Amino acid sequence: MKRISYFLLIVAIVATACKNNKNKNLNSIQQSTPISVDTTNFTAIQWIDSIVDFGTINYGEKIQIKFRCKNTGNKDLIILSARPGCGCTVADYTKEPIKPGNEGLITASFDSKKSHSNDVNKSLTVTTNTKNGTEHYLFFKGTIKGGESNDKIMVPHLIKPETIK
Q1: 24: which residues sit within 8 A by CB, 6+ positions away?
Q2: Which ranges in the chain belong to alpha helices (H)?
Q3: Contact 59, 118 (CB under 8 A)
Q4: Class of the 42-145 domain?
Q5: What is the domain partition of the chain in residue ranges?
Q6: Segment-wise mean pLDDT, segments of 10 residues, the chain, 165 residues
Q7: pTM for this one?
Q8: Most CB atoms within 10 A, among 9, 23, 73, 154?
């Protein structure tokens, strides 16, 4: 009987701790990014550059691709995050609120040495406080010459005549 009492006590403590931790995490998210959950502070965004073709670069080069946006709403535009789609790109963005009518900037630093040769198509996901969607997708493309290719050469298996019936 004593074991059952201890077991139930441990289960109750764990359940309570998990519930409190979940609420604590939600509160910390809301406090760190209150604008993202308060739809009354949503605004509108216009992407001036959402697709960029960087042309042709040599394998191993590092380049920066810039994406501009404009706050077309009447509240401050907040860029909450900019996440690259792969490890060959690092993203940076305007951290301070963008006033109505002003522009913001997202910069993608692309390292072609961490990618492959030939044509590349990369993306970024930008999260904002916008009523026309909070997630926006930015794309850049180009060609990398030299280095390793992403093309695979396939060698067909030889078929022995005795296996064909």
Answers
A1: none
A2: 2-32, 34-37
A3: no
A4: mainly beta
A5: 2-32, 42-145
A6: 54 51 40 58 93 94 96 95 93 96 96 86 95 92 79 54 59
A7: 0.67
A8: 73
